[in-house]
């Protein structure tokens, strides 16, 4: 069997599939548990007339104005998108890792590069799903900003059709440029997570406990989220599609101008802290979600490998 055949086996390996399924299941469960916090974060990012408040206050306001189930509006499309997104990311991350390392010891630098590559593939494949779920999640919301026009989508398929008919196919990739920049978020997160996990395993010489996995997952996500939050805000606004960006013939130049316009406009209105509007809600939601996701991911993957009698390669540690 040649080296090309070996590399192909690494890409389409059972181990990569287990990691992908475990990551998708873990993320879906964790997001379901903390979904209302994500609703609060998205409202603060998109509705710029809403005053900054704590997550409980925002959620209380949403429930009072829109009903008890409002914090879970758009749950299904978000879960579908998240499941696909994490499956693609985990599969690419572990396939690329196995292909590149070939049994060698990994390093934080390699983890970062592999994370960025996996993130780029993930963004290009799943951005249309995230555009649709952002629209559906905000449909029916009571905004403080009167300039935001209400939308009327009947579901995921109808949203796809309406966006393509009214705004063109390219609108499904709104926010792709900041999303490509934001591949640093999961890349940094995985680099920190994998690095901390390796150090702990070397120190204790055993499988990590649930508390240890939860804590290193939380630390990794908190750092990655804080660093990239301003771009996440721009990404949400662009996906919503009602930002009044300046038109330009070049799509790349138009994307650059939109990102800069939204960032400078936010700073002009609220100062530098305006770039971090909703960070408290985002940190609370994303850190808890990521920590629970990593915990479930490790447990599901380890249990599957143990039941199937498959020995994990050193590249995964």
From TrEMBL:
<dbReference type="GO" id="GO:0015230">
    <property type="term" value="F:FAD transmembrane transporter activity"/>
</dbReference>
<dbReference type="InterPro" id="IPR052217">
    <property type="entry name" value="Mito/Peroxisomal_Carrier"/>
</dbReference>
<dbReference type="InterPro" id="IPR002067">
    <property type="entry name" value="MCP"/>
</dbReference>
<keyword id="KW-1133">Transmembrane helix</keyword>
<keyword id="KW-0813">Transport</keyword>
<dbReference type="GO" id="GO:0080122">
    <property type="term" value="F:AMP transmembrane transporter activity"/>
</dbReference>
<dbReference type="GO" id="GO:0005347">
    <property type="term" value="F:ATP transmembrane transporter activity"/>
</dbReference>
<keyword id="KW-0677">Repeat</keyword>
<dbReference type="GO" id="GO:0015217">
    <property type="term" value="F:ADP transmembrane transporter activity"/>
</dbReference>
<feature type="repeat" description="Solcar">
    <location>
        <begin position="106"/>
        <end position="199"/>
    </location>
</feature>
<feature type="repeat" description="Solcar">
    <location>
        <begin position="14"/>
        <end position="99"/>
    </location>
</feature>
<comment type="similarity">
    <text>Belongs to the mitochondrial carrier (TC 2.A.29) family.</text>
</comment>
<protein>
    <submittedName>
        <fullName>Peroxisomal membrane protein PMP34-like</fullName>
    </submittedName>
</protein>
<keyword id="KW-0812">Transmembrane</keyword>
<dbReference type="GO" id="GO:0044610">
    <property type="term" value="F:FMN transmembrane transporter activity"/>
</dbReference>
<dbReference type="GO" id="GO:0015228">
    <property type="term" value="F:coenzyme A transmembrane transporter activity"/>
</dbReference>
<dbReference type="InterPro" id="IPR023395">
    <property type="entry name" value="MCP_dom_sf"/>
</dbReference>
<feature type="transmembrane region" description="Helical">
    <location>
        <begin position="12"/>
        <end position="35"/>
    </location>
</feature>
<dbReference type="InterPro" id="IPR018108">
    <property type="entry name" value="MCP_transmembrane"/>
</dbReference>
<dbReference type="GO" id="GO:0005778">
    <property type="term" value="C:peroxisomal membrane"/>
</dbReference>
<feature type="repeat" description="Solcar">
    <location>
        <begin position="208"/>
        <end position="303"/>
    </location>
</feature>
<keyword id="KW-0472">Membrane</keyword>
<dbReference type="GO" id="GO:0051724">
    <property type="term" value="F:NAD transmembrane transporter activity"/>
</dbReference>
<feature type="transmembrane region" description="Helical">
    <location>
        <begin position="112"/>
        <end position="132"/>
    </location>
</feature>
<dbReference type="Pfam" id="PF00153">
    <property type="entry name" value="Mito_carr"/>
</dbReference>
């Amino acid at each position: 069997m040649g080296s090309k055949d070996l590399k192909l086996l690494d890409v389409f390996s059972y181990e990569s599939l287990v990691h992908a399924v475990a990551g998708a299941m873990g993320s879906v469960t964790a997001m379901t548990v903390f979904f209302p916090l994500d609703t609060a974060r998205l409202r603060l990012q998109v509705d710029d007339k809403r005053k900054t408040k704590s997550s409980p206050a925002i959620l209380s306001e949403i429930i009072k104005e829109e009903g008890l189930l409002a914090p879970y509006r758009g749950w299904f499309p978000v879960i579908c998108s998240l499941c696909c997104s994490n499956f693609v990311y985990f599969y690419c991350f572990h396939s690329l890792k196995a292909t590149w390392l070939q049994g060698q010891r990994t390093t934080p630098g390699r983890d970062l590069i592999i994370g960025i590559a996996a993130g780029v593939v993930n963004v290009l494949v799943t951005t249309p799903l995230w555009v649709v779920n952002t629209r559906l999640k905000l449909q029916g919301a009571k905004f403080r900003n009167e300039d935001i026009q209400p939308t009327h989508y009947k579901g995921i398929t109808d949203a796809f059709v309406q966006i393509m008919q009214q705004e063109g196919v390219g609108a499904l990739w709104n926010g792709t440029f900041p999303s490509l920049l934001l591949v640093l978020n999961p890349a940094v997160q995985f680099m920190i997570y994998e690095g901390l996990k390796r150090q702990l395993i070397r120190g204790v010489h055993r499988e990590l406990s649930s508390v240890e996995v939860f804590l290193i997952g939380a630390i990794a996500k908190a750092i990655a989220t804080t660093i990239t939050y301003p771009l996440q805000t721009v990404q949400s606004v662009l996906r919503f599609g009602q930002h009044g960006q300046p038109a330009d013939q070049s799509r790349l130049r138009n994307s650059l101008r939109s990102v800069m316009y939204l960032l400078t406009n936010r700073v002009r209105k609220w100062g530098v802290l305006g770039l971090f509007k909703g960070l408290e809600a985002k940190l609370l939601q994303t850190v808890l979600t990521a920590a629970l996701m990593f915990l479930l991911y490790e447990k599901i993957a380890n249990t599957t490998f143990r039941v199937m009698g498959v020995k994990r390669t050193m590249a995964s540690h």
